[in-house]
Write a structure and sequence with these properties.
The protein is an alpha/beta fold and 192 residues long. The chain has a single domain, classed as Peptidoglycan recognition protein-like (Lysozyme-like). The protein has 4 helices and 12 strands. Strands 3-7-6-11-5-12 form a 6-stranded mixed sheet. Helix 2 packs across helix 4. The termini are close together.
Length: 192
């Protein structure tokens, strides 16, 4: 699927990936200070509740509609306002919550190569998963396809502008975690 995953994919005038991304508009976004400054991609992982996959909780969190009484873990998320640009579920399905030219609220307190406030200039991509559980082949294939399209569309993006949440918020964040195979991802990108 490596060469085929991004075939026909494009970023439209509204800075949305289509097809195949499903579009939801998160209220947790705002304008970038410099809309043309898209120069970093941050890889995250998420599962809600932790270690559980396939439910609607991730969508609900990013859309601001999570029922915090539905699970004990969710109590700690009450009032949290977060989003990502994209999420890739375990089957490789894509959801886009924020257009790429807008600021998603995924990085929090962060710094990359001396630049603070990474949300200002980054694209956040969530993978449904955990730090310690292997990600699926479909997730890697789709992620590589997405990255190829982003690299082609945004002139400041390439494989050197790719990092994990743990790298921009060390000591505070651990994702995408040791289960994320960076070497495999880079091989997929090199095979394009």
């Amino acid at each position: 699927m490596s060469g085929v995953a991004s075939s026909g994919w494009r970023i439209d005038a509204a800075h949305r990936l289509g097809p195949p991304a499903r579009a939801l508009d998160s209220p947790h976004q705002d304008a970038r200070p410099e809309p043309q400054d898209v120069s970093l991609i941050v890889i995250h992982n998420i599962s809600l509740p932790p270690g559980e996959f396939g439910g609607a909780a991730v969508d609900d969190l990013f859309m601001g509609t999570l029922d915090c009484d539905a699970h004990p873990f969710f109590e700690g998320l009450r009032g949290l306002r977060v989003s990502a640009h994209l999420c890739i579920d375990r089957r490789g399905r894509l959801t886009q919550y924020v257009p790429f030219d807008r600021r998603a609220w995924h990085a929090g307190v962060s710094s990359w190569r001396g630049r603070r406030h990474c949300n200002d200039f980054s694209i956040g991509i969530e993978l449904e998963g955990t730090d310690v559980l292997a990600f699926t082949p479909a997730q890697y294939e789709v992620l590589a396809g997405v990255l190829r399209v982003l690299f082609a569309h945004y002139p400041h993006l390439d494989a050197g502008a790719l990092t994990g949440h743990s790298d921009i918020a060390p000591g505070r964040k651990t994702d995408p975690g040791p289960a994320f195979d960076w070497s495999h991802l880079h091989r997929l990108l090199d095979d394009a």
